[in-house]
Task: structure prediction
Amino acid sequence: MSPISRGFHRRHQEAEPTGRVPPGQYVTTDFPVLSAGPTPRTPLADWTFKIEGGSSPASWTWPEFQALPAETVTVDIHCVTRWSKLDTTWTGVSLDVLLGAVSYDAPYVLAFSDGGYTTNLPVADLLDGKAWVAYNYGGKPLAAEHGGPARLLVPHLYFWKSAKWVRGLRLRETDVPGFWEMYGYNMYGDPWREQRYAGD
Amino acid sequence: MAGTAVRGRLTWQTATVDSLVDETPKVRTISLSVPDWAGHQAGQHLDLRLTAEDGYQASREYSIASAPGEPVAITVEKLDDGEVSPYLTEEVQPGDELEVRGPVGGYFIWDPAVSGTTPLLLLAGGSGVVPLRAMLRHRSRVGNSVPVRLLYSVRSLADVIYRPELDAEPDGVQVIFTLTRQQPAGWTGYARRVDQAMINDVAWPVAQAPLAYVCGPTNFVEAVAADLVALGYPPLRVKTERFGATGTP
Amino acid sequence: MRPLEDDVLDGNAIGGLLIELFGTEMTAAVGTCGVCGSSGPVAEMAVYHPRLGTVVRCRTCDNALMVFVEVRGVTCVDLRGLVSLS
Result:
């Protein structure tokens, strides 16, 4: 049994349940940078976003991507490390537009990023206005440390699913674990059911 | 590497705060009573763990500020948005209990019995001076006379940790400050971030086969280590310990 | 070698974790990268700690040498990128 260190307490108290903040989270006004590797620096001239595994591959260069219809959305984001950030504003292309350009019937994707990061999601969680590939944050181009030039944004799931430096999706028949999922994080990651780890 | 068998226990053990010394307004040295401490080497660190009443635990690592044979001491810099450092620098009192694990470290160690008589170059960025100070204290305690230069990069004189001790400059130890933000009137010393020119001035000549230890924030260590290698120091003779983006790991 | 970013640590920072997992001091142990073949002490490897886990990378090619993730008190250790560690 560890001795109690008199007067020590956690820095962040859990938020009162108000309906906006999932269980076990605290609200922050910071935007912590959490990276598993060096910040990729892909030049925009070399950047593409691809969707693989459909009836034919789809690919957009940066100018082509910028020409797609974009939306600006304000959403709350929830990190599995327990911070939540409310009212974050992003601009990007909806996955309804991107997946709408491809003919497919696969139920899952593996999102892949510069630097080798991957994360898995059901296609259904990318559609119907639930996900974007975002390239602006707070009205400005997304900073590299936060995933720029573009990252996946899937606010209804824990934020590790919103892959930074995203370069594409691989459509799949089966749900395979991505980087963190392989080490024990939840395959789905619903913050409202506190699905942090496998088995939650 | 021979001689790096684990000393002390691998498990957490209770430590009691013995005494406190406020080194600067934001930096405090805490001496600990650790009944089963098996000893440590200069440059090693320990892991420290705090437990709150609700069971919440936080652990951090701190370089050991004291020499082998002295009571275990750590020096902590307060990070304004920190969770543990404000507690250690402002709240903790003699008699309080916390847990430690260690000593840890088989690489960033100075042992005169191993490194011989070649000159020592110590390069500290901010609180990176802590493990280097343990090395200096060890050198004095065992009566070692290896020539030492300590280049200590710090914002201002008021931020210098262990100032009285460093000003005393034991025999054969030369302490060189570079004050990067604020200098007192009449200051004739270095007044900028460490760069290649300063390294070239201060470093022992390569021909003397010096041993260098670099410790501090990551960007400090990266720049200084690269400068030493550019000067001709073999990479194996430059030991590094990085504290990340802030003063302490 | 590109300089490490400001918030990146080195293998000294995982010394305690390695003693806990391997039962012995490991920061001076030499690891060889399975992708580029470069070798060096654990203490000089790049350590990324995004709090979901800890990723240790080769300084030369950024290959993930070791990944540690703690879930419910159990640490998963993956020495995926090392061909040797001694």
User: Anything to note?
Assistant: Residues 51 and 98 of chain A are 8 Å apart (CA to CA). The helical segments of chain A are 62-66, 95-100, 179-182. The two ends of chain A are 27 Å apart (CA to CA). Chain A has one domain: 42-193.
